[in-house]
Amino acid sequence: MPTLSLPLSNLLKNKEGFKRLIADFKYLHSRSGIWTVSTSAPWISSSRGPNSALVSRRQAPVGQLTAGNMCTSSSDDKTSWLWSVYNETKQQTQDLIPVISNNFVNPDTIFANNQMSLQDIEIYGFDYDYTLAFYSSHLHTLIFNIARDILIDEHRYPEGLREYDYIPNFVIRGLHYDVQKALLMKIDAFHYIQLGTVYRGLNPVPEKEVIAMYEGSHVPLEIMSDFYGKSSHGHTMKQFMDIFSLPEMTLLSCVNDYFMKHNIDYEPVHLYKDVKEAIGDVHVRGIMYRAVEADIEKYICYGEQTHAVLQKLSRNGKKMFLITNSPFDFVDRGMNYIVGKDWRDLFDVVIVQADKPGFFNDRRKPFRRVTDKGVLLWDRIHHLEKGQIYKQGNLYEFLRLTGWRGSKVLYFGDHIYSDLADLTLKHGWRTGAIIPELRKEIKIMNTEEYVHTMTWLQALTGLVEQMQVHRDPASQTVIQQWIDEREEMRLRTKDIFNAQFGSLFRTYHNPTYFSRRLSRFADIYMASLSCLLNYDLQHTFYPRRTPLQHESPIWPEQTSTGAINIPFQSQRTTTGTE
């Protein structure tokens, strides 16, 4: 469930406002459970400070919610009573909407999973693609079209596939693909499939069929993707974590759709491997790189703010390095456009074609120096020098040559596995995830429609949970209508983000598999590097302490700051969507 944030500066301006707020929530407390206090919400754009509130709700077991005579009252009386509680709760919830709607989560906030102070950071490292450089939607269309044509021209796929064009916003990042069943789906942090988000080709698979295929909706650990999200060593699931993977998922869906429409018998494993190889060829053969370099203004979004971030770090005496899988010519052309021809003066070390994530694990590959014209030199590398370009290498040699170890290093990347996982688990670097989708999702969460729907959804969930103790047929009929309404709202909130797969971060109330990995491998996360411009380099990021399910939701450190938080639905993470 989402975080609905109420800054104290607005809520507690006067005694009357405070009394009204408390009265409203005392009412909701009496109707739908025990309403509690917490300070887990992100910063609010209107206040730009930490005085914000997480809306969550903790439950306590309840028996009858009225005097004992409700047990023996007539069915009509109980039905009327239930609907009266429903209507009064709904009215009280609607009264809170104007207060909640006036307060927004700032899309330029940096969110913390782990406490981290920029004061401790001496060295900043960066990936290139979707970290320093951001691409327009034209790039996904380019990758899709080239890979589709490779399938037709080189792998002898049907000519009819040329009728398919790239479909923007059909898929989202973080989805799983069952290689043997040719199914694309969203899975939550507990390995459960979000029913309604399973697609074969371009069409959803009925829930009953999904449950029959997987004997439920749980995906066993042994068939999930491996550590890096890959389908290997017996794992039949592939997780798409890269922004570059959006065209790949769309192409898989289109080819599956063509084969099914034309009743063509095919082997799903071969299809997956062929599409993977075709997408890889777009990069490996340099086709994409040449196309982008030829029309850089079409494909790269101008990075004035990226330049400002790098200059800010340089002015403050921070060391910086770049480790990317992209080739030097491509990076050089892009950085000239984004930063300027003197971009290399900002970086102490530049490493291209690093082959991440192998770079972080394989000790065998030595560094090799590359000239400005792309000529590979054969001399042994004893120092990583500023102004030089290096290719391949490995992290262990990098650590030996630079001495940049531990928590004084902060590395930014967009790929949670390839960029961040090994660094935080094995080497103790601090990590920052760049999640461009955040900005769009937060803007959706700030809309009146979303706030209204989610506030009532959470209140209704509380009613269902508390009133389920009434087991007589009349009461159950009413409660079932509430459950049906709740399900309809859940589907509507999913569609707000993406009609097929919903939010990147939520599978209804649970975090997604993507979201859980993000919280584990990234100390901080943000929509873009430009968010750093909003903070000084002494700033400490603190994760919001969301109570665990068994913990009291009121913490001494919260009450000592004068914070009062008014929660609706307790949650496991600080970012809430569906």
From TrEMBL:
The lineage of its organism: Eukaryota, Metazoa, Chordata, Craniata, Vertebrata. Coiled coil: none annotated. InterPro entries: HAD-like_sf (IPR036412), HAD-SF_hydro_IG_5-nucl (IPR008380), HAD_sf (IPR023214), Pur_nucleotidase (IPR016695). It comes from the Eukaryota. This is 5'-nucleotidase domain-containing protein 3. Belongs to the 5'(3')-deoxyribonucleotidase family. It holds the Pfam family 5_nucleotid. Keywords: Hydrolase, Magnesium, Metal-binding.
